[in-house]
Specification:
Distance between the termini: 97 Å
Strand order of the largest sheet: 1-2
Largest sheet: 2 strands, antiparallel
Shape: elongated
Strand content: 5-15%
Number of domains: 2
Number of strands: 4
Structural class: alpha+beta
Low-confidence stretches: 1-5, 142-151, 154-158, 167-172
Mean pLDDT: 82
Number of helices: 5
Helix content: 25-40%
């Protein structure tokens, strides 16, 4: 069956299929340099659109989802692809920064959403060398001079409570 024959070109996943093939094989595609030039290919079995159609049916495709490679440095294949939302796909890129705080690993964007902070704020803090739970603290005034990391000093936080001084009993 040719690609332009029914039913494939009318399927909601067809544009994802066509875009995948273009970015991997058509050198004039605007994003070929990020895929084809890097050696990203489509597995041989998916060059048969009927096989791809069957995979779509069995892999949970729903309208509005996009095809995503689990390992962003590997090829398009049934074992490395899934259907995800655009938001999920945006968190699975080569330049995604993962941060582990208290044993939990999330992307900077996911941490920003979790903490109710702007993702640019977290990215800037991360680039300034702030790490760990200090990334997530909300301070009264987050603006500070270049080179001065106010997050090193916990007194700058609304919820800061100075340590209680416990007087030790002195035995004479």
């Amino acid at each position: 069956m040719k690609l332009t024959e029914k039913p494939y070109y009318k399927q909601p996943w067809y544009s994802s299929y066509r875009a995948m093939m273009d970015r991997c094989y058509r050198q004039s595609a605007k994003n070929y340099k990020y895929y084809g030039d890097r050696g990203i290919r489509v597995c041989d079995e998916w060059h048969d659109i009927e096989t791809f159609a069957i995979w779509c049916e069995h892999s949970g495709y729903k309208s509005g989802l996009t095809i995503d490679r689990i390992n962003v440095n590997d090829n398009y294949s049934p074992s490395n692809c899934r259907w995800v939302t655009r938001k999920e796909q945006a968190n699975n890129r080569r330049n995604t920064v993962y941060v582990t705080i208290d044993g939990i690993t999330k992307t900077l964007t996911e941490w920003a959403e979790f903490a109710g902070l702007n993702k640019s704020t977290l990215k800037n803090r991360y680039c300034d060398g702030v790490r760990g739970v200090m990334l997530l603290h909300k301070s009264e005034n987050t603006k500070f001079k270049k080179g001065y990391n106010k997050y090193d000093n916990p007194r700058h936080y609304k919820d800061y409570k100075p340590p209680t001084i416990i007087e030790a009993e002195v035995s004479e």
